[in-house]
Design a protein that fits this description.
This protein is an all-alpha fold. The chain has a single domain, classed as MFS general substrate transporter like domains (Growth Hormone, Chain: A, Up-down Bundle), CATH 1.20.1250.20. The longest helix has 33 residues. Helices cover 82% and strands 0% of the residues. α5 packs across α7 and α9 crosses α10.
Length: 447
C-alpha cells in the first residue's frame, strides 16, 4: 500500500486513500505531504542505520584506551570538525544545491570504503583505529545536520511543527535496525566488514534526496520558500556561518543549548566506557553489547517520536517541549546523587537518550525553520558540528579534572550534572519563547 501511494501522485492529490486518511488522523500528515514525508522518513532511516552500524564499532575501540587518550581524541575531533565545517561552507558557496546534499553522503560512503581497505593486512592498527574514531565522530554529526538542513529547506515552518516529529521517528526506526547488524553479526563478520556494510547503506540516500527535490514542487508546492532548487547556488562567504553564529543572539542561544547537552552526554559516555572496560574483554563482545543497548533505547524513542512529540509541540508549545527533557534529567541526576546505583544510572541513560532523540532533537531542528537558507546551510553546521564537538572537548577536560584531579565520585558528579541540566532547561525555555515570536517571513536573520 505504501509503495503504491508513493507512485500515484494523482491519488494523493484528488482522492486520499485509507493510508492517507489514517496518517492524517494519527500523525497530522496531509495527503499531498505523504509521499514527501515517507521518503524523508526513509532517508533518515538509512542514514541512522548506517550510523548505528558504525557507532558500536567506534565505541568498542574507545574501551581499549585511557580517559586521557579519549579526551585527547575529543579535542582533536573538535579541530577536525571546525576544519570540516569550513570546507563544507566553501562547498555550500560553490557547488550547485542539487549536488550538495547527495555529494556529502557519497563522500562519506567512499571514506568508509577506504578505511575498510586501509586496515586490511595492517598488524599495528592503533593509529588507524584512532583516525577512524575521530572520522566517525565527525560523520555522526555531519550526516544528520545536513539532513535536517535539507528538511528545513523542504518544508515550511507550519509543516515542520506537524511533520518533523514523524520524520524524526524514521531516525529511530533506523536506529532500531542498524544496531541489529553488529549485535548479531559482529563476531562472525568482524568489525572491519561493518565499515563496508555502512558504506553500501549510505549509497541509497543519494537517489532519495534527488527525488525529494522534485516532490517539493510537484506535491508540496513549496517552491516559493526559496529560489530554484534544481540549479541555484547558495553563494556568499564560505566562512559566513562562523560570523553568523558569533554575532546573532538567537544562534548563540542555540549554541549554548548544544553545549549544555554535550556536558550531560559526556558524563554518561565516560562512565559507560569505564564500566565496559571492567566487565567485557573483547572488542567484538563490547560491540554486540553496545549495539543491543542502542536497540533497546530506540524502541522507546520510536514510539514517542511517532505518535507523541508532534502533539506535545502543538499542545504545550516549543518553550515547554525544549525544556521538558532537561528538567526530567535534572531530577533524575538528583536521585542518582543520593542513590548512586547502577540501576539508577541505566534508567537515567534510557530516559536521557530516548527523550533527546524523540523530543529534544526534532524540536531543536524546528528552530532552524525560522532562519534564512544561507543560515541553515552555513551557520547550522557550525552549531551542530563545531560547537557540539567543542562542547565535547571542554566537557571531557572538565570531567577528567573533576574525577582524576579533584577526586569527585559518582554521586558528586551527578549533583554537578543536575545543576547543568537545570541550566540547560532554562536555556531551552528561552529558545522556545524566541522561536514562537519569530515570523519566518519577517525573521530578523533574513537578509
Amino acid at each position: 500500500m505504501a509503495i503504491y501511494l508513493l507512485m500515484d501522485t494523482k491519488m494523493n492529490k484528488k482522492q486520499p486513500n485509507l493510508l492517507s486518511r489514517f496518517m492524517k488522523t494519527a500523525s497530522q500528515i496531509e495527503s499531498n505531504e505523504l509521499r514527501s514525508v515517507l521518503l524523508a522518513f526513509a532517508l533518515v532511516f538509512t542514514l541512522m542505520a548506517a550510523w548505528y552500524i558504525l557507532r558500536p564499532v567506534r565505541d568498542a575501540m574507545a574501551s581499549e584506551w585511557t580517559d586521557t587518550e579519549v579526551s585527547f581524541l575529543w579535542n582533536i575531533n573538535f579541530l577536525v570538525s571546525v576544519f570540516a565545517v569550513a570546507i563544507y561552507g566553501f562547498a555550500v558557496s560553490k557547488v550547485k544545491f542539487k549536488y550538495l546534499v547527495p555529494g556529502v553522503y557519497g563522500f562519506f560512503a567512499a571514506s568508509f570504503v577506504a578505511f575498510y581497505f586501509g586496515v586490511s593486512g595492517v598488524e599495528d592498527r592503533v593509529l588507524i583505529d584512532k583516525i577512524f574514531y575521530v572520522w566517525v565522530s565527525v560523520f555522526s554529526l555531519f550526516h544528520i545536520s545536513v539532513f535536517w538542513s535539507f528538511m528545513s529547506d523542504l518544508f515550511t515552518k507550519e509543516q515542520s511543527n506537524r511533520l518533523f516529529a514523524f520524520i524524526a521517528a524514521g531516525s529511530s526506526a533506523g536506529a532500531l535496525i542498524g544496531p541489529l547488524i553488529p549485535a548479531l553479526f559482529a563476531d562472525d563478520l568482524g568489525t572491519d566488514t561493518l565499515m563496508l556494510i555502512a558504506a553500501v547503506v549510505l549509497i541509497f540516500p543519494i537517489g532519495i534526496v534527488l527525488y525529494l527535490e522534485r516532490l517539493k514542487v510537484v506535491d508540496l508546492h513549496n517552491e516559493v520558500v526559496h529560489a530554484d532548487l534544481s540549479a541555484a547556488k547558495i553563494g556568499g562567504n564560505p566562512f559566513a556561518g562562523f560570523k553568523m553564529f558569533v554575532t546573532n543572539p538567537y544562534l548563540l542561544a542555540i549554541g549554548a543549548f548544544i553545549l549544555l547537552y554535550t556536558a550531560i552526554g559526556s558524563f554518561v559516555y565516560f562512565e559507560q566506557k569505564n564500566l565496559l572496560a571492567q566487565f567485557i574483554e573483547t572488542r567484538a563482545e563490547r560491540t554486540e553489547v553496545l549495539a543491543m543497548v542502542d536497540w533497546v533505547v530506540n524502541i522507546l524513542t520510536f514510539a514517542i517520536g511517532m505518535f507523541a512529540t508532534g502533539r506535545i509541540v502543538e499542545r504545550f508549545g516549543m518553550a515547554v517541549t525544549l525544556s521538558l527533557v532537561p528538567f526530567v534529567i535534572a531530577a533524575g541526576l538528583l536521585v542518582l546523587a543520593f542513590a548512586p546505583l547502577l540501576t539508577v544510572v541505566l534508567v537515567l541513560q534510557v530516559v536521557r537518550r530516548a527523550g533527546n532523540y524523540a523530543i529534544t532533537r526534532p524540536s531543536r531542528e524546528m528552530l532552524f525553520t525560522a532562519v534564512d537558507r544561507e543560515t541553515r546551510f552555513k551557520a547550522k553546521p557550525v552549531i551542530d558540528i563545531a560547537v557540539y564537538r567543542g562542547g565535547d572537548a571542554v566537557s571531557s577536560i572538565a570531567f577528567a579534572g573533576l574525577t582524576d584531579g579533584v577526586g569527585l565520585g559518582l554521586g558528586a558528579m551527578a549533583a554537578v550534572g543536575a545543576g547543568i541540566a537545570a541550566l540547560w532547561g532554562v536555556v531551552g525555555r528561552y529558545l522556545g519563547r524566541m522561536f514562537t515570536r519569530m515570523d519566518i517571513q519577517k525573521a530578523p536573520l533574513k537578509e
